Structure formats: C-alpha cells, structure tokens
Amino acid sequence: MLLTPKTFSPPSDDKRWKIVDGMMRRHGYEPYALIEVLHTVQETFGFLTDDAMKYVALSLRVPFSKVYGVATFYHFFTMKPPGQHTCVICTGTACYIKGAPVLVNAVEEVAGIKPGETTSDGQLSLLTARCLGSCGLAPAVVFDGQVAGKITSEKIKQRILAHLVSAPETLAVEAQQ
Amino acid sequence: MNQDDLANISAQTKTSEKGFEHVVKVCVAAGCLSANAEQVKTQLEGEVKHRGLETCCKIKGVGCMGLCAAGPLVSADANEKMFQAVTPADAGSIIDNVMENKPVSEAIVLDNKLDFFTGQKKIVLENCGEIDPERIEDYIACEGYEGLFRAITKMKPLEVIEQITKSGLRGRGGAGFPTGLKWTTVYKASSPRKFVICNADEGDPGAFMDRAVLESDPHRVLEGMAIAAYAVGANKGFIYCRAEYPLAVKRLRIAIRQAENNGLLGMNIGDTHFDFKVEVRLGAGAFVCGEETALIGSVEGGRGTPRPRPPFPAMEGLWHAPTLINNVETFANIAPIIRQGGEWYASIGTEKSKGTKVFALAGRVNNTGLIEVPMGMTLRDIIFRLGGGIPEGRRFKAVQSGGPSGGCVPEQYLDIPVDYDSLAAVGSIMGSGGMIVMDETSCMVDVARFFMDFCMSESCGKCVPCRVGTTQMHNILERITQGKSGPQDLELLKRLTGMVKAASLCGLGQTAPNPTLTTLRYFMDEYRAHIEEGRCPAGICHPAKVEAEVSA
C-alpha cells in the first residue's frame, strides 16, 4: 500500500483494544477483513457494542451501515452482553430428533429463560445452535464452551441449577458430576 | 524442500514409529474429546511413564476413528485391539492388556470385526484415526504431499486436470458437478490472478464429515488445494471454515504453519516456480454462505447474499477473478487420485457416481458416527449393516439425506443404491453426506416443519420467493401441527413448493421445499391424520390442542 492508512484512537483506553488493533494491522486495514475483525472484537469483549462497531468502521474505511449490516446478518455475532455462564443447546436435526426441544423446555422450567435470553441476575444465558457437528453424541449441549453429549433433561437441569444457586459455580458443577 | 527431503522425513517417521513395540492410539477428534478423551490420553501417558515403558509403548492422539457413539475410543497395535467408552480409570487395565495380554472388562472391548469397520472403503478417511493431525511428519509418512510433488514436478497443469476428469470425481458438497469440468473452466479463464477456495462452511444440520476430515487430516485438504491451484493457475487460496468448529480451525492453522515452514506452501514450493499461499477465513453462522456466490461475498467481508449466476465463480468470482470453489471432501480426494491415477478412482463406485462417499450417520441408529463407503451401496446396507439398525427394536420410518435441501426417503426405497442420480430420482439429494435416521417416534409433518423453520430463518432475504415463500410454508406447516389447518392448506402448500422451487435465486430457496415435498409424497397419511383426525401418529404434535408443544 502506498499510503499509510490513517489510524483512529479506540473508544476507550481499555488495553484489550490492542488485540483488535493488532488484527486490523495484520490485515493492512483492508475492508475485506471486516468479519475477521468483528470476530476478534466479540472474542475479546464478549459482544459487539455500537462504539466498537463505529471504531471498526472508521479504521477499515467502511460505512457504519455496512458494519451494522454484517453484524446483524450473521447469527454468530451478538450485541447483547452474555451472562456469566452460557448454555448452548444444539437444535440440529440429529439433536432435534433425539429430544433437543425437551431440553429447551427443561431450562425454561428451571431458569425461566427462553433461547436468546439471560437470567435477570446475569448468571446464565441460554442459546441454541444450528448444529455443532457433534451429531454422534446427540443431543449435545455446550456448557461454558465445553461440549457435553447425550444430555437428558435431568442432567441439564442439574447443571443449570448449579449455575444459579452458588457463587463458585464451576466447582459446584464438578461436584455434582 | 525437495523430493528427497520428503522421502527422508517419511523414512525417519516410519523408523521411529517402528521402534515402539506397541502404539496406543486415542481419538482426540471433537466427538471423543467431548466424552473426556483428553483425560484418557493423559492418564494413559501417565501410566506408561509410571511403569517406565516410554521406550516400548507410545501413546498417540489421532483423529476420528468413526464410531462416535461409543467414544472415547482407544485402539492398539494397528487396530488389533479396540476399546470403547474408555474412562481415565481404565488406563491401567488397557496398558496391562496391551503389554501383557491381561483381560480387560468386557464393557470396554470393542469388536474390530464389526460390519461398521469392515464394510467401509476408506480413501478420504484413510488417515483418520491413524495419524496425529497436529504433526506434518505423520502425514508425510503416509505418502503425504507425494501427490503434490508428482503434480508440480512431473505433470503439466492440463495433465493434472485430465486425471481428475478421468477419475469421474463429482463435487462432494452436494450438487455433484463434475470436478474436472469445473477445473477446466477455471484453467481456461484468462486472468492474471485466480483463487482457490475450500468450502468448509458445513452448515447442514446433521452433517459432520468435513469437520472430521479437517480435525483428523488437515494436510490432506491443503495438499488437494495446492494441486488444484497448480492445475488452474492460482497462487492464493482461502479456506472458509465455520466459526462453530474451533478445533478444526486450530488444527488447520497449525497445518498451514507446518506446511509453510517445510516449504510445502508459500513461495517456490518443492524448489519449483510454483507459489501458493493459504489463509483461513471464519464464517459466522450463516447457512446461505455454503452457496458459492454468497460464500464469496462473505470472504470479501460483506453480508453473505447470493447473486445470480452466470457469471459463474469459475469465470468471475472472488474480487471478480476466476475462482475455483470445491468442498473439503472433494479436495481430500485429490491427492490419492494424483498418486494412484484417475482410472483407479474411476474403478470404484457406480457408472455415473465414482469413488467413495463419506456419510455422517446420526439420529435413531445404533452406530452413530462417520463412515466412508463406495458409491452404490444400498441405504439398507448403510443403515442396518454398518449402522447396526434402529435402537430399542423400533421400526424404521425414513432416512433424511442432504439436510434442509434434501428429502426423506421412506422404507420402500431402502434398496436403492446410494448415488447422485438414484437419490435424486426419489426426490432427495446426495447432499454433503448427512444421514439422519428416523423411526416411528418421529413425526414427518413436524420434521418438515423443522426444516422449513430452518430455511425460513436462514433465508438471506434477498429474493422474495425464498424470503416470503419459506415463511408462508412454515406458517402452513405450523398450523397443521397445531391442528388449526383447513382442507385447503394442503393444496396451497403444494402450490407454494412449486413456486419457491422455480423462482428462488439460489440453491437455498430452490431446494428448501424438498423435505416438505418428499414428506407430502411418502407420508400423506400423516398429514391427513393431523388435518382430518386431529391426531399425530407419532405423538409429537398435539394437533387437537390449541398450543403446540414444540417451538424450538
């Protein structure tokens, strides 16, 4: 590139912006890096804020409308802060056939949230996935990034309750296993 | 690196492996990992170290062994002994068994003579479950990168394409377009820059073939891409991979780095003038991005919306340059074809569908997992012989192939050979290879509604027939499952399927009605039971009640 692209300062002095800046620099601030950069923002901050998207738009020289358009087009991106813990229920075909809807109902029953919602104490988010590719272990659920297979409504309730009741949640979950 | 270096690495790796009396392999692909395989591996390693057996027994993490249902899987001595559902606590007795032939608990012994294993023919998956996916040396020891060397040092690009054409290989992403023809088109397109893209956006729910290949044998895909790039005259490649597959992405990145460090990717590959670089691009959860023009839009950093074809990407694709797009499994077939010749490949399979196909067996079947069989095997063989039949003695109802674009094949067609044309003749498609088996506990109207719900929310919204059509069809199907439908609904549904099929812009819309069409064709009695009698034969829906139970 002939001209050094103009750089903008991040929305806050949070050090994590350095990770995002690094990713943009690696791609030479090219507009085609938009999706990669949004992935980095979400990985770093957990979700996409307006400020983050505006900053990315300026830095990559793409209209904010395009950034917003891309962020809302893809299911992977979220603009809502996730809960302390996440529970992703796979609703792919194999899991659906083997009872994923029952699992969704089970979580709704104990935590009172529907897919896409977070409990009012911010402890737990419930999400659904199109397919995790763990069809051999259907129905599959991801608790905090760990895939668990052959889940029953009893098992999922147990793990959810562990998240809701105690503070050092992970320990409680391990103990119940 | 040149051919001698390659042979050296291969010989060294083989010798070092032979130095061990026993090699114990632990499956560390996603399926087994989620069943605690990592701890099993650590425990086995600890056990070997504790007994001071490091010099004669090697513990090795390998890719997918196939039978995901019975994971975590462990095998020893070239699969002479296999173990299933292993827990870390079993490590000691497994080492006892391997070293001294002491008996182990019956529960963890897995019969390696099962039809599931013996009935397969492995080409794409030949290294899966055999090599460590994070070591390039392991791949090289299995004739890895020999195909690439043969292509770039001994063959002209047209000769490479000729072998691919001779092999009869057809696109494994679902549509089955002849691969040789696609390569020829890109080869002939005159342009200073061309691209090769590997479609690893395996969006079909219920399919995990590409994931297994990427997690178990990533170098095979890179080699296939490099051969393709050499043949069509491209110097830059992208792998568009789902963000939902973090392990596949990680192993791909490791593989790319290793290949670059060894001079197998990058500049002057194999001391020739051929350059080829590969980058991974992450998808972000949009099913439509499996469609090639939408995929290109996404690689360019925008929304993944398809555009009309022609011009086809082979003429005008990524950044308007001619672009070759093939699926993971297609690329995984390339290296063996170049090594062993197109005629060898063409000798496998049926007249119009050559070679083998990888299927992901899932749903209501005993042996869920990954299989590779020659084209032309019957559905009955796949589901009942390899798959081990339906659990709990239930009755088979249908098998769904091709995901949301495919159809449900009923019992009367269980004996058709599995190839592109036979599946199309009964209203389904080969698809990428997902096979979901359903038994009497599945309601076919609900299944149709499930897939329509999927297509409705995955429709990109660009063309009206797909955006509005799928919503209307979904509403009708929902009404039927809720018992709120009238007699005119079936007629309306049929008319809509025809309209959406004919008028949609891309493959998503054009094939979205398939699950509905096939269920209407083969399971009309179930639709009737819902509409006329207000009952669901499978007991899934509650057509008589006002509210539906299932709303996932």
Outline the secondary-structure elements.
The complex is a heterodimer of chains A (177) and B (552).
Chain A: H1 17-26, H2 34-45, H3 50-60, H4 64-73, E1 85-90, H5 93-97, H6 100-111, E2 124-129, E3 141-143, E4 146-148, H7 153-165, H8 169-176
Parallel strand pairs in A: 1-2
Antiparallel strand pairs in A: 1-3, 3-4
Helix pairs in contact in A: 1-2, 2-3, 3-4, 6-7, 7-8
Chain B: H1 3-18, E1 22-27, H2 30-33, H3 37-50, E2 57-62, E3 74-76, E4 81-83, H4 91-100, E5 109-110, H5 115-118, H6 136-141, H7 146-154, H8 157-167, H9 179-188, E6 195-200, H10 209-216, H11 218-232, E7 236-241, H12 246-261, E8 277-282, H13 292-299, E9 323-327, H14 328-340, H15 342-346, E10 356-363, E11 369-374, H16 379-386, E12 396-401, E13 407-410, H17 420-425, E14 434-439, H18 444-458, H19 464-482, H20 488-503, H21 507-511, H22 514-522, H23 524-532
Parallel strand pairs in B: 1-2, 6-7, 6-9, 7-8, 10-14
Antiparallel strand pairs in B: 1-3, 3-4, 4-5, 10-11, 12-13, 12-14
Helix pairs in contact in B: 3-4, 7-11, 7-14, 8-9, 8-11, 10-11, 10-12, 11-14, 18-19, 18-22, 19-20
